[in-house]
Amino acid sequence: MKHLDYSAPCEREAGERTWEVVRAAFEERLPSPRKRDWRPFALAAAAAVILAAAFSPPGNAVFGSLRDAVRGEQNAKPALASLPAPGRLLAESSSGIWVVQNDGSKRLLAGYRDAAWSPHGLYVAAVHGNELRALEPNGRVHWSLGRTGRLRNPRWSFDGFRIAYFAGRSLRVVNGDGTGDRLLTRDVRPGPAAWQPNAHTLAYVNRAGDIEITNVDKRNRSAIVQTRAAPRQLAWASDGKTFIAVEPHAVEVFSKRGPRIGGLDRGIAQVSAAAVSPNGKRIAFVETRGGRSTLQLTGVPGGPTGPIFEGAGTFANIDWSPDGRWLLLDWSSADQWLFIHSPVQKVLAVSNIRANFGADSRIAGWCCP
Amino acid sequence: MVAGSRGDERAWIRGAQSGSVPDLEALFKHHWPRAYRAAYLVVHDSGAAEDIAQEAFLAAVRSLDRFDRRRPFGPWLHRIVVNRAIDWSRSRALRRESGDAALALVAAAAPAERDDTEPLAAALADLSPEHRAVIVMRHLLDYTPGEIAEALGLPRGTVNSRLRRGLDELAGKLDEDLR
Question: B120 vs A4: CB contact, 8 Å cut-off?
Fold first, then answer.
């Protein structure tokens, strides 16, 4: 065998599409300085001081916008041209769900809401009218399941073999291929639910506002965790040994058997969202106090908390990039998304979110490089 | 455009580093076919091949300012392409989500996007990603076993044995097809 002469299918069309993407990336890149002078070193030194301050114990300096009015970050890009880390985004809006590719191209799946990625990002579970559907990111539907009552919050188990979802005031589970739909419990508050990694075990909030942890296959409950206030969000650490509960004024950390092992009482501040980093070691959460919101970072057991971004108005949601290097912050009051490198080295802002994604848009998930 | 010599390539890179879109386009057009073909022959999925080759070019754009013009661009690009193609093929093999069976049915029902009339490409698809990669690098991209070893981070002996086994397997499959 000497030389392999081969022309691959779709080579020309793929080349034309890719050239457009590459050219766009080229045109928006920041040229590096041609002349070496001392300014970069001065900036680096200033950045190091800021970093040191941001990650010192409480009392930290705040990196980010300190403004009285909601003006958002300056130098924000008018549209999302690309994601700063590998993966794809799901965003929801009043017109449907958007699948945003790494190069910034996006597809609207009209009429869908309450979307969630499957573990490897091959599929999306989403609600369409009275149906729960599993579809590919290109919109091809694999199965659908009609149910009465308002359907919401489908969530895939770690292996994709189970999907938990709320139907009216009940919590149900269906197999990942659309078979075996069954009622798990009616003693539930619709909304928060989280699968334990590496198990078919689900944490959810019962009507009393306490957290129940149940193996959905064996239907045995392994723990009931009493809470001070009904959690609005639950999330497991990646090792499955601990989980966090976002309460109105606190982020609590519990072991999988139930005992509280740490937490952060935020006083009068409202805690609105939290996300555990992919390596399970850090929690990012958002708190709002006196018309200003702050993105905070802490270790999973609790402990010192560092504010890493502050701004006027409301931060609606946060998510980690799949590689754990970036946080995506939905600064809804400023109509901006901020991609914040963690540890904080830079902030990339994108504005016009409502114009680009539709009213009531929100981040639904960043998945799978 | 004359097929790019090393001098052309240096000029394109220098131009692109200065912000010239035409120079970047020349560099892209010169390297795209082989990058895409290499990715395709390892992953055998045109969508994935496009993603992989595109990611490699985007990585090139991101590092353009730091790129050393004295070094050839192709080997750097191909190393990214082939390594990502191998990773993609391995992860694809590991993905066993529920619903894959349904996906396979849909895929089977869809018109074939691959030209299976070409027996060599079809036979190559039956090899492991690792064997495909070394054969593609050797016989499509024309790298020496030493260069392949460096690009893939493998001992040279491993490259040689993969080449030998891959080619033997390929010959066997082509014999079967011709029988």
Answer: yes
Q: With contact defined as beta carbons under 8 Å apart, do A114 and A108 qualify?
A: no
CA distance A249 to A312: 19
Q: What residue has token string 């079809």?
A: B122
Between chain A and chain B, how many beta carbons pairs sit less than 8 Å apart?
Answer: 129
The partner residue sitting opposite B98, judged by closest CB among A10, A29, A161, is A161
**Measured between CA atoms, how close is B154 to chain A, in angstroms?**
22
- A50 in Cβ contact with A60 (< 8 Å): no
Please write the tens of the pLDDT for every residue from B114-166. 444 467 777 888 888 899 999 989 988 888 999 899 888 899 999 999 999 99
Contact indicator for A188, A209 with CB cutoff of 8 Å = no
pTM, 2 dp = 0.57
Instruction: Give the closest of B53, B97, B114 to A118, CB-based.
Output: B97
Residue A142 identity: H
Which chain A residue is nearest to residue B67, measuring alpha carbons?
A32
Cα angle for residues A29, A30, A33 (degrees, 5° grid): 145
Cα–Cα distance measured from residue A223 to residue A6, given in angstroms and rounded to the nearest whole number = 60
